[in-house]
Write a structure and sequence with these properties.
The chain is mainly alpha-helical. 56% of the residues lie in helices and 2% in strands. The longest helix has 33 residues.
Length: 202
């Protein structure tokens, strides 16, 4: 139904949403300190979340709407590269593995790694309070160490036995010779030079 897509946005608790304008924030007179502080917290949330929202929104549209998806991207008036980068990071790091206390840029720094390494470095960044620059340095060190590791040697395949082949003529001659050697009555007699014939008597 028309307008259904706006429901998630309207469900967000936006303080003084009527004061939000494309060109500024028109806060009312007499705003209490607590309310003013709440608006600031909301602005901080949106600043860090908008890239995630764009990425998830883009991936959802790409998977469901085909050509209409491209038209909607044009309507955002954001650069193609910005939207594709946000979509890539959002797809590389699923919602359940993102860390609210780290910025989008932190997640972007590890997006190209395998999920176990993403989780490890994001946890390290959280516990150590790393800036996004420090996290990028850790990613660079990890990639450098990975490049130094030798690739596993391929297993040697057993050599195939070499089977000598003989021509039919050679095999036939060997069979004939073997047959003759077995049937000759003289095969066990010693071989000696013939005795000279006696000279004739005068």
């Amino acid at each position: 139904p028309k307008g259904q897509g706006a429901a998630p946005v309207s469900a967000i608790a936006i303080p003084y949403r009527d004061t939000l304008k494309p060109s500024g924030l028109d806060l009312p007179e007499g705003l209490s300190f607590d309310d003013w502080q709440g608006v600031g917290e909301f602005l901080k949330l949106t600043e860090g979340a908008v890239q995630w929202w764009l990425g998830d929104w883009s991936n959802y549209g790409e998977s469901r709407y085909g050509e209409k998806y491209s038209q909607a991207l044009d309507a955002t008036e954001r650069s193609y590269q910005t939207l594709r980068n946000a979509a890539w990071v959002a797809k590389s790091i699923t919602l359940s593995r993102r860390r609210d206390n780290l910025s989008f840029a932190h997640h972007e720094a590890v997006a190209a790694l395998d999920p176990p390494e993403q989780d490890r470095l994001l946890l390290e960044a959280t516990s150590q309070g790393w800036s996004r620059t420090r996290l990028r340095e850790a990613v660079a060190i990890y990639k450098a160490d990975l490049a130094k590791k030798p690739l596993p040697k391929p297993k040697k395949q057993p050599a195939e036995p070499v089977i000598a082949t003989e021509s039919a003529e050679t095999m036939a001659a060997a069979i004939v010779q073997g047959s003759q050697a077995k049937t000759s009555p003289f095969r066990n007699l010693p071989v000696s030079a013939p005795e000279p014939s006696p000279e004739p008597q005068d």
